[in-house]
Design a protein that fits this description.
By secondary structure, this protein is α+β, with helices and mostly antiparallel strands. It has 2 domains: 1-36, no CATH class; 39-115, SUI1-like domain (Translation Initiation Factor Eif1, 2-Layer Sandwich), CATH 3.30.780. The chain is built from 3 helices and 7 strands. It has a 5-stranded mixed sheet with strand order 5-6-4-3-7, with helices on one face. A two-stranded antiparallel ribbon has the order 1-2. The protein is elongated.
């Protein structure tokens, strides 16, 4: 059998295989490593308001924080409770539903972050 760039997806001896590290799913640590990795940023929080691609519903995006995914989820939870709104963490940025740029900037400064 030739190797045409295909990857093993399931093995009868191992079960499901992780596509990133090629280990058995139960032994895979990719998700843990991804969630604890801190991105290389300048540490300055950048806030912006976006409407694009959301059917007219605006979100406040907070990016540029040098926090791991788990820390971003924790900070996102604090902000969502503070502002009584929904949101998510996607692609290393916190999304808050609605326009909370001023309130979020103030809260982030209280927490010790630099804000632009």
């Amino acid at each position: 059998m030739q190797n045409n760039g295909s990857k093993l997806v399931y093995s009868t001896s191992l079960g499901a295989i992780c596509p990133e590290c090629a280990r058995a799913r139960k032994d895979c640590r990719c998700r843990e490593l991804r969630n604890t990795a801190v991105p290389a940023t300048d540490g300055v929080a950048r806030l912006r308001y976006e409407l694009n691609g959301r059917k007219g519903k605006g979100v406040t995006l907070i990016s540029g924080l040098s926090l791991s995914h788990n820390e971003l989820v924790e900070l996102s939870g604090k902000l969502k409770r503070q502002f009584a709104t929904g949101g998510a963490v996607k692609e290393g940025a916190i999304q808050l539903q609605g326009d909370f740029r001023l309130q979020a900037a103030e809260k982030l400064r209280e927490l010790g972050f630099k804000v632009k």
